[in-house]
Specification:
17 strands; disordered N terminus; alpha/beta; eleven-stranded mixed β-sheet; 556 residues; globular; Rossmann fold; four-stranded mixed β-sheet; 17% strand; 17 helices; single chain
Amino acid sequence: MKEVVLQLAVFIILYTNYGNCETPLVKYNYGTVRGKSMTTFGGRSIAAFLGVPYASPPVGNNRFEPPKDAERFDGERDATEKVEDCLQYSQATYKTSSGIYGNEDCLYANIYTPKILKEGSSEKLLDVVVYIHGGVFMFTYAHYGPKYLLDQDIVLVTFNYRLGPLGFLSTEDDILPGNNGLKDQTKLLEWVNKNIKYFGGNPDSVTIAGTSAGSSSVHFHMISPLSKGLFHKAFSMSGTTLIPWAQAENAREKAERVAAELNCPTENSLEMKNCLKNVDGIKLVATSKKFMPWLYLPLAPFGPVIEVKHDQAFISESPINNIKKGHVNEVPWLVTMTSSEGLYPAADIAGDPSLMRHLEENKDELLPFLLDYNYTVTSEKIKEINSKIWNKYFYGEKAGSDVSNMLKMAGDRLFVEGIVKAAKLHAQYTKSPVYSYYFTYRGKNSISDTFSNSKIDFGASHGDDTSYVLQNKYLNPEETKSDIKMIKLLSQIWITFASTGKPQVGNITNWPLVCRKSSEGFYYVHIESPESVYVEYQNNLGHGQFWDSLEIGQVL
């Protein structure tokens, strides 16, 4: 009789009473997990399940292979502690340590849910947000907390995926086609589709959201056939497939350099792959440093590639071609940017006058690394391209201080131009609505404080907007009334978009769409402060016409 009841139940969540600090238990397709209770910023009790496996460990012979389903387990699995981050070379710690930390066994998810549903309950399942972390496909982690967002009725999922050479090494053939980090993300979405109902989430209302590389990942899922039907809205904060570092160049050449560094064969792809499967993971990840000649630049030596055509290719044609042919997953898209995107990676330079001088004195050598065209411009053209860019941003009619010029240059090239271009292409060639906001609010703290080691107000940094919704170690927006208002304002955008596919904020009743005509400018909602939110229009945001005029040769 008990088995019949279990089969008839829509989902099973075993939990007694948060007030009594009892332990939340969830039984799902792979076993039973024991979580813990947490308290949100507004004092609400929620359940947290940490380190839930969504795929088999990508270790041993599974290294460099597409992710496999997680294994079933007996008994209760402890889901109360954070698991290790994926093995990585971290740009955030390169000054103080080797920068290498983490574990190859890292394909785990964290699930946060505010609603505890009884067995067989007919209560409404909640909208789901799956958040994909950033880190230029090279570093960082899943530990973005629910403290602010889960004051609302929503289920949040965060997770790790393979990074750097472990996630994105490619021999540009069908032996090691690449993109395993993106395929990990798709495996997570498959897991959510099959299991999130057991945690109170609605598998038919999934929003994928991400920042930086996570933002670009969201856009990749919008054009990947592997991810079709696994999500219903998309939210990209500060990144698309068309920003320059979102696609890795010369992948085969890099794989051969890694292999040579580790005494593995370089000519035969299968021999190379089998040899690299057996080298020490730390030594493998350490080769990343060989591709970053200045500071941690260029940003992403290993990242997504266009795969050769095969059955399980994540993407086998350029993003622009996919968009223009309508080969996209048609979902509403909210794509956004901040006013000082260039603070990543340039906060280090902005906060250190000696680095700024070094860049100025050695721009012909260093500018291609900062702006990510060291692989795409010939040596004969480098000086000409450098000169055009430097003159545009440092001697143009709107030039400011050297630091502000440098931040504008880096922000336009590495983020804004590619964000605007992608949004306008989707508006022009696809059927689904495209929305945008431009975030210029700088609160008491900023992510740039950490990376620049200063409190100078450089504007709203890359990643600042995310930090008002998902708690992280870089920014604490709880110290001023204005910051607390911003938490509520941005949370409203997330919640309304995840629920309806149309964002709402403040008194703006009709959020403008990105124009479908390529000749028209760019409409967006400008978030200046909690009290100042308004619709704005710009004709050449990111200076796309200038960047398109350069012979940079990037594959898009």
